[in-house]
Write a structure and sequence with these properties.
By secondary structure, this protein is an alpha/beta fold. It has helices at residues 19-29, 59-66, 88-96, 107-116, 130-140, 145-159, 174-192; strands at residues 8-12, 33-35, 39-40, 55-56, 73-79, 82-87, 100-104, 121-126, 167-170. The strands form two sheets. The protein has a five-stranded parallel sheet, with helices on both faces. The protein has a four-stranded mixed sheet with strand order 4-3-6-5.
Length: 206
């Protein structure tokens, strides 16, 4: 019998949409779900930990991994003048353990993953409006004015790709957005994890 393979969830959304908050809550409350820690060349933000939030590496090391295709990165992209990538090895190892994988990646990366893994389940997180997003980024107070303008401009571009995703969640009320995300995971598990005779798989789904 082949080893079990977990589902692959793609989670995208502009900076300030609430992805990190929702990701942390989902990982803490949904069993059998693992976070794929991305590699990045950007500097850590206050409170971020290497190997937990990101694998923080220099540009030379990143490019060396990228050139190991197809065994290096499942996807990689340049965002806000920094490089980000998802390790093929990390995703494959966790899926072979039967874990579902959550990828927190941008639109460019999502397009690459869907091209290679079309069975992936894509979810886009939107703010209620660009004005709300702008206020959230300002309250975060972690950006220079130049970076703030760049992120807001890129957010508009990213939001134009929302129709390309299987699911769309609008983060107006945070708890509602978390509930919607959890419901998507449960629905996909119920759909994909059925026994050959049509009976549900015995594993706990939520």
């Amino acid at each position: 019998m082949n080893p079990p393979h977990g589902l692959l969830f793609i989670f995208s959304g502009p900076s300030g949409s609430g992805k990190s908050t929702i990701t942390h809550e989902i990982l803490a409350t949904v069993p059998g779900l693992a976070f794929s820690v991305s590699h990045t060349t950007r500097a850590p933000r206050p409170g971020e930990r290497d190997g937990e939030d990101y694998h923080f590496i220099d540009k030379r090391s990143f490019l060396a991994l990228r050139d190991q295709e197809p065994s290096g990165f499942l996807e990689w992209a340049q965002v806000h003048d920094n490089l980000y990538g998802t390790s093929v090895h990390e995703v494959r190892t966790k899926q072979l353990q039967g874990l579902d994988i959550l990828l927190d990646i941008d639109v460019q990366g999502a397009q690459q993953v869907l091209a290679k893994r079309p069975e992936s389940i894509s979810i886009f997180l939107c703010p209620p409006s660009v004005d709300v997003l702008s206020k959230r980024l300002q309250r975060r107070a972690t950006e220079t004015q130049e970076s703030f303008v760049l992120r807001l401009r890129n957010a508009r571009k990213e939001m134009s790709h929302a129709p390309d995703y299987k699911y769309l969640i609008v983060n107006d009320v945070l708890q509602d957005a978390i509930t919607a995300f959890r419901s998507i995971i449960i629905a996909e598990r119920l759909q994909h994890r059925r026994m050959p005779n049509g009976q549900p798989a015995p594993a706990k789904l939520w």
